[in-house]
Amino acid sequence: MRAWGIPWSTNCERMSIAAALAGVDVDWTLVTFDDRTLIEEVSGQRGVPVAELDGKIVVGSLQIVRRIAPQLWPDDPRTCALVDTFLEWFDRVWQQPLGILWRDSDDARKARAATRLDRSIDRFEALLEGNYLFGELSVADVATYPFLKYATDATPDDDYDIHEIMRRSLSVEGRPRVAAWLDRVAALPGA
Ligand SMILES: N[C@@H](CCC(=O)N[C@@H](CS)C(=O)NCC(=O)O)C(=O)O
Q1: Best exposed site among 61, 88, 92, 127 by fewest CB in 10 Å?
Q2: Is the same domain home to 60 and 88?
Q3: SS3 91
Q4: Quick one: 85 and 142 in the same domain?
């Protein structure tokens, strides 16, 4: 499968993990964070990852993951509905404070955003009664690990501002299940 991305992209890592789990080879073309000319030419928008599937260009990490690794969605309809709801929460609500910490200049608002992010890790701690967020390994783990990993990640060349913000805002202190889960998911192929 051909795909386009940027180095250290959280959303590209979602796709890398899913592809490795599904046994799909990815032929990546990487561009830089600042020059999205090729991404715009290929897909008509700037976000990555972008993939070519059955001759069609697909954008959106979870849209791509659903196409290449549908087995990551639980079979049980109720658990599957919970996972989809969780994914919408993660992309639309959990990520919102990151934008405030990145772009906003209001210190009080930024402090509230940092508190919201930090407290959110307690929800992950509570979800992790077993090895994975919703019982078996699922798209919930694959989609959130590339973000949550910044609680412990120190990859030297990965110096994007947004990743530095996550390193500062996320912590596994007092969250032993999240710490163990990060190690567990890090050991998966593609992570
Ligand atoms: N909802 C999209 C978000 C894609 C996205 O925002 N990707 C980041 C990199 S992790 C990016 O390209 N941001 C820059 C931009 O959109 O201009 C997805 O899940 O793929």
Answers
A1: 92
A2: no
A3: helix
A4: yes
Residue 46 Cα to ligand 1 middle (Å): 7
Ligand 1 pocket, residue 7 CB under 6 Å: no
Is the CB of residue 33 below 6 angstroms from any atom belonging to ligand 1? no
Neighbours of 171 (CB within 10 A): 15
- The SS3 assignment for 46 reads coil
Q: What is the predicted pLDDT for the residue at 149?
A: 98
Instruction: Mark whether 58 and 129 lie in a shared domain.
Output: no
Task: Please check whether residues 32 and 62 belong to one and the same domain.
Answer: yes
Span 123-145, mean pLDDT? 98
At 51, is the pLDDT very low, low, confident or very high (cuts 50, 70, 90)?
very high
> Ligand 1: which atom is nearest the Cα of residue 47?
12
The response to whether residue 10 sits with its C-beta less than 6 Å from ligand 1 reads yes
| CA nearest neighbour of 117 among 150, 160, 156 | 150
Task: Tell me the residue length of the chain.
Answer: 191
Between 60 and 155, name the one with better pLDDT: 60
Range of the domain at 65: 2-70
- Based on the fold, state whether residues 66 and 78 are members of the same structural domain: no
The verdict on 174 and 104 lying in the same domain is: yes
Closest atom of ligand 1 to CA, residue 12: 10
Token reading at 16? 């890398």
**What pLDDT band is residue 156 in, cutting at 50, 70 and 90?**
confident
Q: pLDDT averaged over the chain? A: 97
Whole-model pTM over 0.90: yes
Mutate to test the pocket of ligand 1, among 16, 57, 59, 61 (most ligand atoms within 8 A of CB): 61
